[in-house]
UniProtKB/TrEMBL annotation, chain A:
EC number: 3.1.26.4
GO function terms (MF aspect): metal ion binding; RNA binding; RNA-DNA hybrid ribonuclease activity
Family matches, as SUPFAM superfamilies: Ribonuclease H-like
The protein's name: Ribonuclease
Pfam families: RNase_HII (PF01351)
Manner of cofactor binding, per the entry note: Manganese or magnesium. Binds 1 divalent metal ion per monomer in the absence of substrate. May bind a second metal ion after substrate binding.
Source species: Oryzias sinensis
Keywords: Endonuclease, Hydrolase, Metal-binding, Nuclease
Family listed: Belongs to the RNase HII family. Eukaryotic subfamily.
UniProtKB/TrEMBL annotation, chain B:
Originating organism: Oryzias latipes
GO CC annotations on file: ribonuclease H2 complex
One record GO biological process: RNA catabolic process
Domain of life: Eukaryota
Pfam families, A to Z: RNase_H2_suC
Designated name of the protein: Ribonuclease H2, subunit C
Chain's gene name: rnaseh2c
Membrane-spanning segments: none
Length: 306, 136
């Protein structure tokens, strides 16, 4: 697994993939989808697909792939190695969603929630397999959300393919277990070797599992909190754990789409800031004359004090 | 305010020697007045794709571009040399640094010529035209 393309720029998302086995272009195939790193406040979320001919299902099962969560890191690495050995009939692809992509998507003006982001990523990976010529007939998906709706959505999007969405699919279908191993191995490696885009010198890499309830993760989040910038892009700002810490320990930042009650906002805007000079509504100057639209459009105002 | 009895003195004499600094105009209000680790967190993570810059601040995606101060104008960063204790005391403001271009940032949206700060730069030229003495 070459993580180079992602590590070259870990602020954006990236697709990594194996060679497509020739047999997958000629025989009917099954495909499994799973994700790794949905819960953590640190690092990327990785979506994985794994596929093989329907006729090779037993062989895949014999590789003893299992739900990645029940395995140790060493076992996962070993099983990933086994999958790689089986590359004549097993293919995989990953979509690494960088923490910065997760933060900026979820915190867009028009919010893009994690479920929608997950579904779109899964759809993108299935489409990638189809575009690469994989003869897909069966798709198995692990889900944390409501399975029926998701199954319906995928079935409509990919007519002619039998879609099965199940909670815990990673322990029921070997091809989903295989996908979960690929995703988890990639996530672990990315987190372990994270290169901070920020210029922070040597960053303490003892950040634990990245789950909000891990004491090491908590301690790391306290240590690396900057009062103005908050966190490096390694942290998912859209997680309530990060938001809560920033609300209590960092300086307050106001955005024009904040949900803030009118009175509070008005009071705040009377304290002149740099931005208030560009703001149409700010200030309480008595305006005896109507300001021309030329100025209001440009948010220009006469300045009588500093 | 104009009704106060104090006077604000603006010392512009050091403009010639003042350091030229990069300036960023963010689409938010930060309740902080003072130093910040701009180069470590912000400049280090800035991207430039065909003149459109991208960065994120507090997990929100920003797109920006550089604009120049209008011809003949210089941007000033001002600092109070002493914080007046009361409204009655005079205030002395000094030029701490200068800039002739700045980078302004929009939340989510790429910069366009309709952005207010871009349009605001029209004013000096227009002001000059309408205030120019009329030749007989």
């Amino acid at each position: 697994m070459d993580l180079g393309p992602f590590e070259a720029d870990n602020t954006v998302s990236c697709r990594l993939s194996s060679q497509i086995p020739d047999i997958c272009r000629t025989e009917d195939c099954c495909l499994g989808i799973d994700e790794a790193g949905r819960g953590p406040v640190l690092g990327p979320m990785v979506y994985g697909i794994c596929f093989c001919p329907v006729s090779k299902k037993q062989e895949l099962k014999d590789l003893k792939v299992a739900d990645s969560k029940t395995l140790t890191e060493e076992e996962r690495e070993r099983l990933f190695h086994n999958l790689d050995e089986a590359k004549s009939y097993v293919g995989w692809a990953l979509h690494v969603l960088s923490p910065n992509t997760i933060s900026t998507s979820m915190l867009q003006r028009t919010k893009y929630n994690l479920n929608a982001l997950s579904h779109d990523t899964a759809i993108g990976l299935i489409q990638y397999a189809l575009d690469s010529g994989v003869q897909l007939k069966e798709i198995y998906v692990d889900t944390v959300g409501p399975a029926e709706k998701y199954e319906e959505k995928l079935s409509q999007r990919f007519p002619g393919i039998e879609v099965t969405v199940r909670p815990k699919a990673d322990s029921l279908f070997p091809v989903v277990s295989a996908a979960s191993i690929c995703a988890k191995v990639a996530r672990d490696r990315v987190v372990k070797g994270w290169k901070f885009a920020e210029d922070l010198g040597d960053v303490d890499a003892d950040y634990g599992s990245g789950y909000p309830n891990d004491p090491k993760t908590k301690a790391w989040l306290l240590k690396y909190l900057d009062p103005v910038f908050g966190y490096p892009q390694f942290v998912r700002f859209s997680w309530s754990t990060a938001q809560t810490l920033l609300d209590s320990k960092a300086v307050t930042v106001h955005w024009d789409d904040d949900e803030e009650d009118g009175e509070k906002a008005a009071k705040r805007l009377n304290n002149k800031s740099m931005l208030s000079f560009f703001s149409a509504s700010a200030g309480s100057d008595d305006q005896s004359r109507q300001t021309h639209r030329f100025f209001t459009d440009r948010r220009l105002r006469g300045l009588s004090s500093l | 305010m104009s009704c106060h009895s104090s006077v604000t003195h603006l010392h512009v004499s050091p403009v010639g020697q003042a350091e030229r600094v990069p300036v960023h105009l963010l689409p938010c209000e930060i309740e902080h007045n003072g130093p910040a680790q701009v180069s470590q967190y912000f400049t280090a993570t800035m991207k430039d794709h065909k003149g459109v810059k991208a960065v994120s601040f507090r997990g929100r995606g920003l797109k920006g571009q550089e604009i120049c101060c209008p011809a003949g104008y210089t941007g000033l960063v001002l600092k109070d040399t002493n914080k007046p204790g009361s409204d009655q005391e005079d205030r002395i403001v000094r030029v701490s640094s200068v800039f002739d271009k700045l980078t302004y940032w929009n939340l989510d949206n790429p910069p366009t010529s309709d952005d207010t700060v871009v349009m605001a730069m029209d004013w000096p030229e227009l002001a000059e035209a309408i205030h120019e003495p009329i030749d007989e």
